[in-house]
TrEMBL record:
A Pfam family annotated for this UniProt entry: DUF2387
InterPro entries to which the protein is assigned, alphabetical: YheV (IPR012658)
Lineage: Bacteria, Pseudomonadati, Pseudomonadota, Gammaproteobacteria, Oceanospirillales
Protein name, as recorded: YheV family putative zinc ribbon protein
Domain of life: Bacteria
Organism name: Pleionea litopenaei
C-alpha cells in the first residue's frame, strides 16, 4: 500500500485544503481526507464512504435594548 498527500487538493466534503491523501493498493486507488474521513474510489465516481464530522455552531446573544 502506498499513501501520499496531494498538495493543493481540496476535500469535496469539508472543503479543507491540503488534507487529501491518495492511497494506492492492490484493490485500486482511492482518495482519503484526513480531516473529515471522506473517501472516494478513484476508479469509480461513487464514494466509498462518506463520514461527516459533526459541525459546531456558535450562538451569541446580543442585547439590542439600550436601558
Amino acid at each position: 500500500m502506498k499513501k501520499r498527500f496531494i498538495a493543493g487538493a481540496q476535500c469535496p466534503s469539508c472543503s479543507e485544503l491540503d488534507v487529501i491523501t491518495l492511497v494506492e493498493s492492490e484493490q485500486g486507488s482511492h482518495m482519503h481526507c484526513v480531516e473529515c474521513g471522506y473517501e472516494e474510489n478513484m476508479t469509480d465516481s461513487e464514494p466509498v464512504a462518506k463520514k461527516k464530522k459533526p459541525t459546531e455552531q456558535m450562538i451569541q446573544w446580543v442585547n439590542i435594548d439600550s436601558d
